[in-house]
Amino acid sequence: MSELRAPNLLAWVDVVVTAPAHSGLGETLTYRCEQALTPGTLVRVPMGRRETLGLVWAVRDHPPEGLQPAQTRPVTAVLDALPPLNARWRELVAFAARYYQRALGEVALAALPPALRDLTPEQLGRRLKKTQPETPTAVSASALAPLSPDQAQALADLQGESRPVLLYGTTGSGKTEVYLRAAQRLLEEDPEAQVLVMVPEINLTPQLEARLRERFAAHALVTLHSGLTPAQRLKHWIAAHLGQARIVLGTRMAIFASLPRLRLIVVDEEHDPSYKSQEGARYSARDLAVYRARLESAHAPCQVLLGSATPSLESWHAAEQGRYRRLAMPSRIGGGALPRLRLVDMNQQPRHTVIAPALLQAMADRAARGEQSLVLLNRRGYAPVLACHDCGWKSDCPHCSAHAVFHKIDRTLRCHHCGHTTRVPRACPECGNLDITPLGRGTEQIEEQLTGLLADARRPDGQPVRVARLDADTTRAKGSLESQLAGMHSGEVDVLVGTQMVAKGHDFRRITLVASLNTDSGLFASDYRAPERLFALLMQAAGRAGRDAAFVAEQGSQVELWVQTWYPQHPLFAALARHDYPAFAAQQLEERASAQMPPYGHQALVRAEARTQPAAQAWLRLAAEAGAGLPGHERLTLYPAVPMAIQRVANVERAQMLIESPSRPALQAFLAAWQPALQALRAHPETHGLIRWAIDVDPLTI
DNA sequence: AGCACGCCGACT
DNA sequence: GTCGGCGTGCTC
Prior knowledge:
Elements lengths: L10 E6 L12 E5 L8 E6 L2 E11 L12 E2 L2 E2 L8 H13 L4 H7 L10 H10 L18 H10 L6 E5 L5 H15 L4 E5 L6 H11 L5 E4 L5 H12 L5 E4 L11 E7 L16 H13 L5 E6 L4 H8 L4 E5 L10 E6 L11 H12 L3 E5 L8 E4 L16 E3 L4 E3 L6 E3 L12 E4 L3 H11 L13 E4 L9 H10 L5 E4 L12 E6 L13 H13 L6 H7 L4 E6 L5 H7 L3 H14 L7 E9 L2 H15 L9 E2 L3 E8 L2 E10 L2 H17 L9 E8 L5
Parallel strand pairs: 2-5, 7-12, 7-13, 8-10, 8-11, 9-10, 11-12, 14-24, 15-22, 15-23, 21-22, 23-24
Antiparallel strand pairs: 1-2, 1-4, 3-4, 3-6, 16-20, 17-18, 18-19, 25-28, 25-29, 26-28, 27-28
Helix pairs in contact: 1-2, 1-8, 4-5
The protein binds a DNA duplex (12 and 12 nucleotides) through strand 1, strand 2, strand 3 and helix 2.
């Protein structure tokens, strides 16, 4: 028998593919290849009876222990028309997978454009040929508006700063212009540098995109968000990866874009919870931005700029400690004043008041002068629930432990958690009573009531006052958000009712009044971050008003934020009245410190979903037992398993368990050691009925 | 995680 | 008769 010898050029590569850590396989699979491949190369490899996209992670000259060379399958194709993903990118992905307790393959492949998955080298080649390399363009040095003293100072201070920068600028202080100038300065200095700009919501990309395109040559900019078609996303990703795109504007997913010459990351509205992913790997794009800038800086300087009028307490704390550099911009452009707070004490109002008469009058007065009002109510639909007064029936969702919301517009009951929709019954399904009534109020109802209550009010042109509504329901169709915003800009609409969607970023020039109707829901929520979110929301909403100082001066109007509350003495309002975020933050941080909560303590949440609540909780109890004695265990607290606030969604029972530690490394060490034990629990008989489980590191809501 | 295979309900 | 629901099992 002749000696079996490998051909000279035979090599092996460890390839990352989408297989979860709990599949029993390692993080990488080893394949055979005929040519030397570098780490970061994209390949196509066989997986069972199909072929899949993989990423070369490591190169080796022998298969791993326990794997016969004959067991390895060959790499099918090499996508070498694309340069390899660089080491910093790979390190970012590896860190995210490790830190957020997910499989490397899941994070790596989710970070790549989905269209890349089913692309042969030939198809890729054709696609690359079509996108001709674009010539780097000079940044237009056209006449720019002069900077405010705050802006000029911030830009000067930004220069050469190696720490993450927290740009703490009040609403209307011109943070965006600072981002633009910082990007411009960098792009002029370094003809190959790339800038990543992130916004919390896809809704906010068009207006920033317009501003960026106006300032920078059009083809140097690409967007990256979930609203793109697969082909667009692939094209934009490739432009970034090849270094052709100089500016990438995107949502949280853009933090994983391949940017070989990344020199600046801007995180706009850094406090926004949307930066924390809520499915799959639950990463914080803001935190990863800080990490990524540090990784890049080991190679070439890369700044990270976090901007907000109400920074997250985490970032604020980091700035207080000097880990971040804080740059403050306290003044509004044009010297406009921030709105005056008008607290409406609901205890002093006539019974069953929905909108205080004085507030109504203030809106009518403004409409009469050609000014606009914004009314904030964080509930879609007409009423959160329908009820029968005779038998106590409520419009509960059959699949969730939540009410189905009454939408009057199409006579439906809709569950906002699972999407289950039914027609509104004509009579109580339990007792036949014809008198079933809506309880509570949503945006539809406020729109209806305001229309009625303002029926006699007139605009300057003598026409009746126009009320419109802006929420997820009215903006579902493509382009409807744009057309609604246009209606607001043109002055067609006098009063706009909406959910928090209306509070974000939009620059309406004629708003002089903002009102919050059901403010208290955020005051006493069980979630310890609720006050922080409420303060940010109210500040942000307030920031929509009086943005055009010249308009306000001309009108001679008072710019106001009206807040309806049953608790006008709440300290949050005292800080809000003074627009005093630092005082609010100091008070919140003091509470957090004494309770050892973030940013002083660190948390992770284990969530279990099962057929029954006992099954979900049993799994969590077993998980806790499996954690006893693991590294880091002595430095952390495992709380008992509890049902989640909404216990059942789409017929799945949910429970969770909180883990706290004063030490982030201890928590991380524990979670890493715990992971295999949790996977092994699958085999446990008591685990029957478990559907899935996941760990949420640094959870935002508990 | 994907994705294929495989086995039971409402329609082109 | 199929299309398609998601349960189970596999992936160097």
